[in-house]
Amino acid sequence: MEERSFKALVVTEAGDAGFSSSIKERHIEELPAGDVLIRVSFSSLNYKDALSATGNRGVTKKYPHTPGIDAAGIVEESTDDAFRTGDRVLVTGYDLGMNTPGGYGQYIRVPAAWVVPLPTGLSLKESMIFGTAGFTAGLSVAALVSEVRPEDGEILVTGATGGVGSIAVAILARLGYPVIAVSGKPEAQDFLTDLGARGIISREEAVDTGSRPLLNGRWAGVVDTVGGDILTTALRSTQLFGTVTCCGNVASPDLPMTVYPFILRGVRLQGINSQNCPMERRLQVWKRLAGEWKFKQLGDLCKEIFIGQLDENINLILHGKQRGRVLVNLEL
Prior knowledge:
The chain is α/β, with parallel strands linked by helices. It is built from eight helices and 15 strands. The protein has helices at residues 47-53, 124-145, 163-174, 189-195, 228-236, 260-264, 279-290, 310-318; strands at residues 5-13, 19-27, 36-44, 70-78, 88-92, 107-110, 116-117, 154-157, 179-182, 199-201, 219-224, 238-246, 268-271, 302-305, 325-329. The mean pLDDT is 95.
């Protein structure tokens, strides 16, 4: 039987030259074993994808490799009764794009336990404008809204022009929360205001490196996407019984501070793990993203590229110059 081939971005180790990527022809028979074969229509670009594509062994252990931690498409084959040929589905997280060939190929084969039926209210394209970033933002919002009401006060969103931050701003604004966005990009003011931010502060304004263990309590809640001094300052500046979510460490993984915000103000620090989120919670959040959390600016939040344009966009995201979301069209 003739082997079926498809195009994929393949990252290879080039010795002293580091790592390089190119579009190559692969065969479906080369994909790993799995329950569900999916023809990928769309993927997206995340910071973890950029790390995988540039040889970060903490993300991807073996090369050659096809990154892409997100994928949405059509089921072509399934050995699991939960899915049938023609089903519209999405996959985010788990091991996809890390050590399992990912969404930067036109086909993936994965365990059925990783696959989410496309929720009513979302197209395949829209699901990947959200992607892992949107799902992470959704988990962060879910943690906040269960504890904090709009009338409780301002919500701080750090890294607000990035994928997670921009979507968190838009969802929270849609739900009526007064959002203050942190951005180091003065030119992004209109972008963030259009998403619903009521105020914008600079990174410098969001950081206090002084020794005081507690600062004036301003924030009812925080969605932090960067870690480091910004997260430390946010925790020290959170009101009594406020909630802070944390999902990133691009600034730093360290958290140099005292326990006083937790034991004197009752501040809650909620870690967000979108990669291994249980399926029941995963389905709940995707349903809300497709429903009451879906915002009108979603289509304007991304730029659309094809896999041959990934290299230049990976460079942008690694240098903090990417805004919003990058949608990768595998049908082009």
